Amino acid sequence: MTEKQTIGQWLDTLASKAPVPGGGGASALAGALAAALGRMVANLTVGKKRYADVEQEMQAALAVLAALQEELSGLADEDARVFAPLAAAYGLPSQTEEEKARKDKVMEENLLAASLVPLKITERALEVLRLLEGLEEKGSRMAVSDVGVGAQMARAAAAGAVMNVYINTKSMKNREQAELLNARAEAAVRESEHLADRIYGRVLEKLR
Amino acid sequence: MTEKQTIGQWLDTLASKAPVPGGGGASALAGALAAALGRMVANLTVGKKRYADVEQEMQAALAVLAALQEELSGLADEDARVFAPLAAAYGLPSQTEEEKARKDKVMEENLLAASLVPLKITERALEVLRLLEGLEEKGSRMAVSDVGVGAQMARAAAAGAVMNVYINTKSMKNREQAELLNARAEAAVRESEHLADRIYGRVLEKLR
User: Fold this and answer.
1) How far is CA B24 from the centre of its chain?
2) How far is it, in rounded angstroms, from Cα B85 to Cα A55?
3) CB–CB of A25/A2 below 8 Å?
4) Lower CB density within 10 Å: C or N end of chain B?
């Protein structure tokens, strides 16, 4: 499990030839980093007199970000879990018509599973960004740069994961489903980049 | 030490009110993730007949990326280490002229140290990107999406860390030095964003 490994171990397995973790897992982890940074900012805001009027909003953000952090860490594991059956499906025999039909079916199922995980990473990263936008506006001024870093991490998570959607949908036979998944992924990544750049720009303005 | 902690522990300390790790540490970690992804791509390229003519370049990239990954992980620790003396300096008395002069001197030294660490993170992230560019062009086609994820991580590392340069140089009395540091940071982050976007665009083209 990703969360139980040391950072050194995880980085070195990432760096190795081993198929997982790879770019999908790294994207999920960047998303978890973004959520954790958002929690940090909310934690530095709650209970402060100066920010009393946003207390409830900050408490709500804390709860949602904790759930998103956990989900994104879990998606790093999930991304690793869907890899092996997909790799196995690529190796299925396809000599006879029957084998071919069976391989197609198994491939299609596993390609779908392997597309849905990075799509979820992208969409969750976008949710983190929506919360970061509120934190930039109303959270502790002292921690505004951490909102900016969080925005960069979430942007990288979304733009990183989306490539694994495209890789897997590319091989799908059901083109209608593939195009739907691509469209969902593209919308999420475009909004993430836009939102992250807006948040980051505002943070830079405050720092100057 | 960052590398010895579990990912779960590190994320939860990041999420807490504790001053470190914060955005600087998260940026350093994103840089280490980028370097590890680059190593993964190079590891999947070396020893392959198809890529025999880039073997030496890949071996060289492996060595440099391993060093960069280690340095970036270490910069997460370094970023935490320079925080305490800076926080202590902010609390020094400044009633008498003598106290004021001493505080100014100690502040200036610690602001410089606290600026140099994120500046180094940004510059190292740029070095990772320069290697990723070669990996995109010449590394294993099978792992090209991992180059794209690495580019996103390095971009986030550079753009994330640079804010901590600006925060610290802002309070420096030696404006000439502050402006020099800002200019170096800005050049590195601009080049990083440009390079990352170019690499990512090329990867997307290959995936389609």
Assistant:
1) 8
2) 31
3) yes
4) C
Tokens of B53: 């003519």
The gap from C-alpha A170 to its chain's centroid, in whole angstroms, comes to: 20
pLDDT in tens, B34-72: 999 999 999 999 999 999 999 999 999 999 999 999 999
* 8 Å CB contact of A33 and B30: yes
- For the stretch A89-140, pLDDT in tens is 999 999 999 999 999 999 999 999 999 999 999 999 999 999 999 999 999 9
A28 to chain B: nearest residue by CA?
B149
Report the chain B residue with the minimal C-alpha distance to residue A145. Answer: B163
Which residues, listed in sequence order, are joined to residue B6 by a DSSP beta bridge? A6
* Helices and strands: H and E segment counts in chain B: 7, 0
C-alpha–C-alpha distance, residues B77 and A185, integer Å: 35
Closest alpha carbon within chain B to A203? B163
Cβ A145–B23 below 8 Å, yes or no? yes
Could you count the other beta carbons within 10 Å of the beta carbon of residue B197? 14
Phi and psi, residue A87, nearest 5°: -60, -40
Tell how far CA A62 is from the center of its chain.
18
Task: Give A-chain residues touching B66 at CB under 8 angstroms.
Answer: 15
Closest alpha carbon within chain A to B20 = A40
Q: Which of B33, B150, B163 sits opposite A149 (nearest CB)?
A: B163
Nearest beta carbon to residue A5 from set B6, B37, B156 = B6
3-state secondary structure of A19: coil
**Residue of A7, A39, A155 with shortest CB distance to B156:** A155
Within 10 Å of residue B201's Cβ, how many Cβ atoms?
Answer: 11
Nearest by CB to residue A27, choosing from B73, B149, B170, is B149
pTM of the model: 0.98
Q: How far apart are CA A121 and CA A129, in angstroms?
A: 12
B74: closest CA among B109, B126, B117, B130? Answer: B117
